[in-house]
Specification:
Blueprint (H helix, E strand, L loop, with lengths): L1 H25 L41 E2 L2 E4 L7 E5 L10 E6 L9 E7 L3 E5 L4 E5 L4 E3 L21 E4 L7 E5 L11 E5 L9 E5 L5 E5 L4 E5 L5 E2 L2
Antiparallel strand pairs: 1-8, 2-7, 3-6, 3-8, 4-5, 4-7, 9-14, 10-13, 10-15, 11-12, 11-14
Amino acid sequence: MNRIRRSTAAAALALAVTTGGFATSCGGGGEGASKPPAQTETELPPAEETAPTTPEEGPSPQGGIEEEVGPGTHQVGKDMPPGTYRTQGPSDSDLPNCYWARLKDASGEFDAIIANGNAQGPTTVTVNTGEYFETSGCRNWIKEEGPPPQEKAPQPESPAGVGPGTHQVGKDMPPGTYRTQGPSDSDLPNCYWARLKDASGEFDAIIANGNPQGPTTVTVNTGEYFQTSGCHNWIKIG
C-alpha cells in the first residue's frame, strides 16, 4: 500500500508542475507572461521612375506616289518619284506614236515645255523633282532601277535589231556599230536617229543626229541613249 501512495503523490506532483507551467505560458497579464513582439513598419525603397515610352518612328509612307505612270499630267516628287522611266510605246496598235512631255509648271502654256516627244516604240525619259510629266496614248511608264549600265553586262543583240524608240546603250542594246536600210515607209523621204548623252529629251542632250534617206551606219557607246523613228530596224554589224 505504501508504494501505491508514493506513486499517486508523484503523479499529483507532476500534474501540478505541468498545470503550473501551462498557466505560466498561457496566462494573461502576469509578469511571467510572454509578450508578442512589437510590429515595426518596414520602409519600401522608392519606385524607380521610368521615362514615358514613345512608339518607334518608322519611315513615313509616301502616299500617292507611284512608280508606274499612266496617261495624265503628274507632279514629279508628289505623284511620282524622280528618276528614269520607260514605256513600251503606243498603247493602241492603230496609232503610230504616243506623246510625252516634261513641263516646268502646270500652266499648260507652250513655254512650260522643257522637252517632249512622240514615241513610236520603247522610249526612256528622265524626270526631276519639281517638274510635271505629261503623257497620252502611251503604255504605262515604269520606273527603272538598278546600277548604271557600266556595271551591268550588256544585253545580247537581237537578231531583229533595234526598232523605233529611245534605247539605253549597255542596257537595252549593246554598244557597237549599227546599220539601217533607211526609211521604213516608202512614202516618207527620210527617217530619224540621234545619239543622246542622257534621257532628258532636251536639245542639249543631242550628241549627234541625222535624217537618213537610205542605208546608214551609226556607232553608239555605253552610257549613251540611241533614239530612232521611221527607220528600218538597226542591225549590229560591229
